[in-house]
Automatic annotation (TrEMBL):
Species name: Halobellus ruber
Protein name stated in the entry: MOSC N-terminal beta barrel domain-containing protein
Molecular function as annotated in GO: catalytic activity; molybdenum ion binding; pyridoxal phosphate binding
Domain MOSC positions: 91-255
Signal peptide location: none
Record Pfam families: MOSC (PF03473), MOSC_N (PF03476)
InterPro entries membership: MoCF_Sase_C (IPR005302), MOCOS_middle (IPR005303), Pyrv_Knase-like_insert_dom_sf (IPR011037)
């Protein structure tokens, strides 16, 4: 049976995610706590993996109950910040670590998402397993951290999520909360990198595109995909204004 296997939010954009058992959908359509904070430079541009591989040198932990952000450098230096009260101190500490001027800003209405108007990202466990099988030594856990999805659905076929984008695509529901697929998620350089070391797999993009083309599912609409360097989808919650709650373990159904 299809079920919601995992919910993951990324409290600080570009840094590590944290698994949660439940998550409210914000009125703005994103998950509560997801990308709520971001390190912004003087031009308002965020620090993330697309900008620099240095983000992989920083381990981040977050306690959603207390709002405590724990950051550890690859040299073992650790600091804890009670957010949002410690934002100034966190800004100064991160500026030193990343050798620049950054301010830890907060947006608790939508979060610092890349694509305005879109909500959670969705992938299946089988998709993660399949992608891992394309590369020697790559684990499912590593692929999960590389792709950085919000919702993970188990009990379905690889690339199950692809069926929900394109003309006349169906919707799906998680415990009664309806989702519309919006578009496939085109990838950047981040999935090619080891999430712990930042080291990139040689020819990752080329191998990925080759295997994605070979395994593209019959039930997906190829016209929706601009290219094959894409995996997982971006979705929208039509009833986001009602602030529904998602729970790990709830059934997932095609509508």
């Amino acid at each position: 049976m299809a079920r919601l296997e995992r919910l993951r939010i990324y409290p600080v954009k570009g840094l590590d995610g944290v698994d949660v058992g439940t998550a409210d959908v914000r009125a703005g359509g994103t998950l509560d706590g997801d990308r709520e904070y971001a390190l912004l430079d003087a031009d308002g541009d965020p620090l993330n993996g697309k900008r620099t591989a240095a983000v992989h040198d920083l381990d981040a932990g977050f306690d959603p109950d207390s709002g405590t952000l724990t950051l550890e450098t690859d040299a073992g230096e650790t600091e804890r910040f009670a957010l949002p009260a410690d934002r100034d101190r966190a800004s100064a500490w991160c500026s030193d670590v990343f050798d620049g001027e950054f301010t830890l800003e907060r947006d608790d209405e939508r979060g610092f998402v890349d694509r305005p108007g879109m909500g959670p990202s969705v992938v299946s466990t089988a998709t993660l397993e399949t992608v891992a099988s394309w590369f020697d030594g790559l684990t499912v856990g590593s692929v999960r951290r590389r792709l950085r999805a919000n919702l993970e659905v188990s009990g379905v076929d690889p690339f199950w999520e692809d069926r929900f984008v394109g003309e006349a695509a169906p919707e799906f529901a998680v415990g009664g909360v309806r989702f519309e697929g919006v578009e496939p998620c085109g990838r950047c350089v981040v999935p090619s990198r080891d999430p712990d070391t930042g080291e990139a797999l040689p020819e990752f993009r080329e191998r990925f595109i080759e295997k994605r083309r070979e395994t593209f599912p019959d039930f997906a609409d190829p016209d929706t995909f601009d290219h094959f360097f894409a995996v997982m989808i971006l979705a929208r919650v039509p009833a986001a204004a009602e602030r529904p709650t998602l729970r790990v373990g709830e059934p997932v159904e095609v509508v």
